[in-house]
């Protein structure tokens, strides 16, 4: 027999709890849970977007690097000549160049070298200057040139073309044999020895004059140039 003072355990009525006075507490809890889930979802989405952005950023960096190598290869020069005692004159119509040295009156009158080059028909006529140097210059995916001296007008003084980067026995003999005629692929080509001489002796800001035509100074003759019938090495490349 149960003690009259004892009361049995009362069954919890969840439905009554919701609709009763606890409904406000329940609503607040639901809001808190919803806000937490929303915050967690936003965090996951942001992390996913950051990963995508990082991947895109890496791809963009690669694209930028590829764009750069369209112009200059990784072997960009650490050596920059500081000599400012020379100037270069280029005859566009007759495809030759003359290098002058400054005399005691600070005028460029002393002829140092005169040689055949290959000038692009699109080369801009006028005064410019050397603005950059590179050991190898990428012209296209299958064309690289050595001892490049970039001009401020976007033209480049460099060797005949090579098929492969940093491979001096991959000379394009058609490009080499074309020296003395209008350039086949833009800018201004010459033998390796002459491109190297400019690279090593003419400093940044050396003045360069591209002219439609001018006469050689009296007594000045162009260096001899001979075409090649075979081989993949510039015959003037003595290193």
From TrEMBL:
Chain segments annotated as transmembrane: 25-45
Pathway annotation from the record: Cell wall biogenesis; peptidoglycan biosynthesis
UniProt KW Membrane keyword: yes
A biological-process GO annotation: cell wall organization
GO MF: transferase activity
Keywords attached to this entry: Cell shape, Cell wall biogenesis/degradation, Membrane, Peptidoglycan synthesis, Transferase, Transmembrane, Transmembrane helix
Name this polypeptide is given: Uncharacterized protein
Organism: Lachnospira pectinoschiza
